[in-house]
UniProtKB/TrEMBL annotation, chain A:
Keywords assigned: Membrane, Transmembrane, Transmembrane helix
Record-given protein name: Uncharacterized protein
Membrane spanning residue stretches: 12-31, 37-56
UniProtKB/TrEMBL annotation, chain B:
UniProt-annotated location(s): Cell membrane
Organism in which the protein naturally occurs: Streptomyces pyxinicus
Membrane topology of the entry: Multi-pass membrane protein
PROSITE patterns: PROKAR_LIPOPROTEIN
Domain of life per record: Bacteria
Keywords: Cell membrane, Membrane, Transmembrane, Transmembrane helix
Domain Na+/H+ antiporter MnhB subunit-related protein: 105-226
Protein name: Sodium:proton antiporter
Transmembrane domains' residue ranges: 67-86, 107-126, 132-149, 170-192, 212-233
Family membership: Belongs to the CPA3 antiporters (TC 2.A.63) subunit B family.
Automatic annotation (TrEMBL), chain C:
UniProt-annotated location(s): Cell membrane
InterPro entries assigned to the protein according to its UniProt record, in alphabetical order: MrpF/PhaF-like
Record-given protein name: MrpF/PhaF family protein
Keywords of the record: Cell membrane, Membrane, Transmembrane, Transmembrane helix
Main location: membrane
Membrane topology summary: Multi-pass membrane protein
Species the sequence originates in: Streptomyces pyxinicus
Automatic annotation (TrEMBL), chain E:
Name of this chain's protein: DUF4040 domain-containing protein
Organism the protein comes from: Streptomyces pyxinicus
Topology in membrane: Multi-pass membrane protein
Domain MrpA C-terminal/MbhD: 11-77
Source organism phylogeny: Bacteria, Bacillati, Actinomycetota, Actinomycetes, Kitasatosporales
Subcellular location: Cell membrane
Signal peptide: 1-19
Alphabetically ordered keywords of this record: Cell membrane, Membrane, Signal, Transmembrane, Transmembrane helix
InterPro entries attached to this UniProt entry: MrpA_C/MbhD, Nuo/plastoQ_OxRdtase_6_NuoJ
Coiled-coil annotated spans: none
Transmembrane feature ranges: 29-47, 54-72
Length: 64, 249, 150, 119, 86
């Protein structure tokens, strides 16, 4: 179905996800009082969920 | 009839007020120093390395009650789903897309992930700082509905496959029960917090099963609130019965 | 009783009374504006209380209110947009005054907290509070122009 | 002053409860009645927390203070209130769903008109 | 003197509750109820119950108003279409 001729959309999508993930992971580190390994892992996971939803939301609104 | 009712209310209300005031005057005085149950609860919580005593009471000392509370929430959502289902004489009319000012739309899109991560933070740190599964779950579910407020219902429906949230809701309740049964299998009691090590005080892994139960409640509440709001939104926005006129006509 | 709690008492008492008066009288537009101001009055008070009690963890309450308060106002602005259609309530003077109150509370709390992660958290709350306040006012002043069935 | 303070929170809780009951009995709109019930419920929160308060105490949350360094208020009633709020929210949602069903079946949300319908 | 903030928030709560009951239109009542939710959260904070305050904020400031306003919208829409038919 989709021919991978143009790598730019993929690149842009991953850049957007990465930017959101970085911002949200930073936010998590700001929220917490003490940082340890488990805290970092959980924060990275939650930031990933947030990043995916941020992109999904933006796409859903731009859709029409 | 109406006047009679008001008289009845006045008499009953005055009587109740008198009784309540008498009871208030007899209560231990506000701000008193004697809280025997509270002191013991704090002691028990510290013994299990849980920094937030309220989380300890909810998910350790009274974990069985929290199971009841969860099933109340689950049953209430089930009741709402049944009450608000689409009946045969109703039809769905997709709403027209709304026109929302650009700053509002951008605000909604930017705050959505921030609110979601805040909700997850409140859930994850339930046994440390103020917060917990219930509060964080509601925040996460509310965050999702920013999409309805900032754009339109169609946008929300695209990122909200309802089946996933219904499954999450059910899975979370059953995982709470499974965690309880694990205690039973380990040879102690249902929902007894003796399964996992208590960890270092004031870290994310402290408190044995409390963080896990907290996460289960958080997932359940987030799923339940989303499903609940979805059915109310369906009723208010999409579903019309046969007598209602379509907006386009 | 320290200065922080006294300031919070004044913000709660004064702001709360004004909000209550605004939300019970007048046309719908004014009531929603007053509801929006409840967030801007109580959130700084919560920050001040957190300082006054010496409990940094109480800041989470202000964080949640700064996030969810404007969402509540958007709910009303959207679902009452029919009632708002005729009148475009725009009280920008009041909005910026409320934003100034929030800013003052955040700056004071930051000065007390000193540099560090706690200060960044307070700044995040301040940004969310002021942005939410301004956006909610914008939404009331014709933010939802044509909300048909949706 | 201090003597009035001993009972003031309890009296406020009683007042809020009675106010909610008054609204519930005189309501002309079922959604308004649900809101009045929410007011009644908030009276129970005030009562529970007032019972657990300790003068000069702070919250029993030890993420930012040393355990035992300050007197703390009663956590048991706070946990009860938390459950109370959850149940209150679900009751509100369930009652609103019932109101929508009534509006669909009978075409009215005025309790008095509903009584006349029943005959 | 340290009780002043408790007294102020208690009186504010009582006033909000009265206002919420006396507003007969459900949409206007929902506005007062959301203010009541925020004031209750402040009261819970001064009573040293931040957990309860958080959950009151989460429920009272956005979730309950949204539920009530959606129900109001549904009943109003029904009423309007009934009037149109008559």
């Amino acid at each position: 179905m989709t021919r991978r001729t143009d790598p730019r959309p993929l690149l842009r999508a991953s850049a957007e996800l990465l930017a959101w993930w970085l911002a949200l992971a930073l936010l998590w580190l700001v929220f917490v009082t003490s940082v340890d390994t488990l805290e970092r892992i959980v924060g990275a996971g939650c930031a990933a969920v947030g990043a995916v939803l941020a992109r999904a939301g933006r796409r859903a609104v731009r859709w029409r | 009839m109406n006047r009679l009712r008001l008289w009845l209310l006045a008499v009953g209300g005055t009587g109740l007020a008198a009784l309540l005031v008498a009871a208030c005057l007899d209560l231990p005085r506000f701000g008193g120093r004697s809280h025997p149950y509270g002191d013991r609860a704090v002691h028990a919580s510290l013994r299990r390395h849980i920094a937030n005593t309220i989380a300890s009471v909810n998910f350790d000392q009274r974990a069985y009650d929290t199971l009841g509370e969860m099933s109340i929430l689950f049953a209430a959502v089930l009741g709402c789903v049944v009450l608000l289902r689409q009946t045969r004489d109703e039809h769905r009319a997709p709403p027209e897309p709304a026109e929302v000012a650009r700053p509002v739309r951008r605000y909604a899109l930017l705050v959505l992930p921030v609110a979601l991560v805040t909700g997850l933070y409140v859930i994850a740190h339930g046994q440390l700082s103020p917060g917990g599964g219930f509060q964080g779950g509601v925040v996460a579910a509310t965050a999702l509905h920013l999409l309805y407020l900032g754009a339109d219902y169609g946008a929300l429906e695209r990122v909200r496959p309802l089946g996933v949230y219904e499954t999450t809701d059910a899975l979370a309740v059953s995982s709470y029960v499974v965690l309880g049964l694990a205690g039973l299998l380990a040879g102690t009691a249902f929902l007894a917090n003796t399964l996992l090590p208590y960890g270092t005080f004031n870290t994310l892994s402290s408190g044995g099963t409390v963080p896990l139960l907290n996460a289960a409640v958080g997932m359940e509440v987030a799923g339940a609130a989303t499903v609940l709001l979805a059915h109310f939104l369906d009723q208010a926005v999409e579903i019309e019965d046969a007598t209602e006129e379509e907006p386009g006509k | 009783m320290n200065g922080w709690i006294l300031a919070a008492t004044l913000a709660l008492g004064g702001g709360g009374a004004a909000v209550l008066w605004g939300v019970t009288t007048g046309p719908p537009a004014r009531r929603i504006l007053a509801q929006n101001l409840a967030t801007s009055a109580v959130c700084p008070a919560l920050l001040l209380l957190s300082q006054g009690y010496g409990r940094p963890s109480y800041v989470d309450l202000a964080l949640l209110l700064a996030l969810l308060g404007p969402v509540g106002t958007l709910v009303f602005a959207r679902l009452l947009s029919d009632d708002l259609a005729g009148e475009r309530p725009s009280a920008w003077g009041l909005t910026w005054t409320a934003a100034g109150l929030g800013l003052a509370a955040v700056v004071a709390a930051c000065a007390a907290a000193g540099p560090g992660r706690a200060m960044v958290k307070l700044l995040v709350i301040g940004v969310l509070l002021i942005a939410g306040n301004v956006i909610a006012s914008r939404a009331l002043a014709g933010g939802f122009r044509r909300v048909g069935g949706g | 002053m201090s003597h009035a303070m001993d009972v003031l929170p309890y009296l406020v809780a009683a007042y809020v409860f009675l106010t909610g009951c008054y609204g519930l009995a005189t309501s002309r709109h079922l959604i308004h009645a649900v809101g009045c019930l929410a007011v009644c419920q908030s009276a129970t929160y005030i009562l529970l927390l007032a019972v657990g308060y300790r003068a000069g105490g702070t919250a029993p949350v030890f993420s930012d203070i040393e355990p035992g360094s300050r007197p703390v208020v009663d956590p048991v009633v706070q946990a009860l209130t938390l459950t109370d709020i959850v149940v209150g929210a679900t009751v509100t949602a369930l009652l609103l769903a019932l109101v929508l069903q009534i509006a669909k079946r009978h075409g009215t949300v005025d309790p008095d008109e509903l009584r006349e319908l029943r005959g | 003197m340290a009780d002043a903030v408790i007294v102020v928030t208690l009186l504010l709560t009582a006033a909000c509750a009265t206002a919420a009951v006396t507003q007969r239109d459900p949409a206007r009542q929902a506005l007062v109820l959301s203010v009541l939710g925020v004031v209750l959260a402040a009261l819970f904070t001064v009573l040293q119950a931040p957990d309860v305050g958080l959950s009151q904020l989460a429920v009272g400031s956005a979730l309950t108003p949204l539920l009530i306003m959606l129900s109001v919208r549904k009943t109003r829409r029904r009423g309007r279409s009934k009037e149109d038919r008559e």
